[in-house]
Amino acid sequence: MKNLLARLSVAEQAGGFEHTLSVRQLAELMGSADSTAQLSNKRLQERGLLRQLDRGSESDSATWLLTRPVEPRVPGARGEVGTDTAPPPRQMGRVPDSRTLAAIMAHDAFHYFAHGVTGARILAALDVTEGASVAELAEGCGHHPTTVRRRLQALEEDGLVVELEGLYYLAELEISHRQLDDAAERAGTSGRASVRRLRHQQQREGFRHWATARRQAASKGGGPNLAVPKQAQRALEQGHAVPGWDGWDVSDPMRPVWIDDAA
Description:
This protein has three domains: 2-66, Orthogonal Bundle (Arc Repressor Mutant, subunit A); 98-187, Orthogonal Bundle (Arc Repressor Mutant, subunit A), CATH 1.10.10.10; 192-258, no CATH class. The chain contains ten helices and seven strands. It has helices spanning 2-14, 23-30, 34-46, 98-104, 116-125, 134-141, 145-157, 177-187, 192-219, 230-237; strands spanning 18-20, 50-54, 63-66, 161-164, 167-170, 248-249, 257-258. The radius of gyration is 25 Å and the shape is flat.
């Protein structure tokens, strides 16, 4: 769900269902780990909801296409000859607003150790004027009523929702990012998204260094494919400062490692 919402937001900006997106960018939009985003991509591809058009390049992200799987026709379903009735529509309860959910799901307040994606879905299904019951929220969000009631209590303690005569409302006209920041601070998850973005930026810089060194080695006649140039490696081993390589562990020239102080 988070994967699709993130991709729909990107596709809307791109003007169509074809869009470019890297795994790291997707993880940041989802508010999850890289491995979670990769597994989610695999499941969506297996279910026919996502197709990868190319693998991208050193400077460009991969290109994807959101698709809709073709469902086989079921005898007796609407549209089949001899069927003049259809089952009554299923009550959906209070379904989360997709735009609201996409905007808040990556916030630190909805980290796994805070309110979680369940809290984000509940919050995106509430309104400031029209109340919703636990049963309506459970039906629309697809969770057990006990889970919804427990999450609502936590959201109420953080001042994000209010309860009146058995119905729940948003506490303010719009979801307050100030209150979300406070909730993340209390849960101990504040800053997780910033650390993730910093780590991804360092990984991108490391990949660019490696790709540049590989091209330079290839242009010199197929020498050793070193990520760290030999001259830079010798200078670093002798204790000299080399521009661009501060903060890198180059003990293995084939695989330089960024020393992540933020971790």
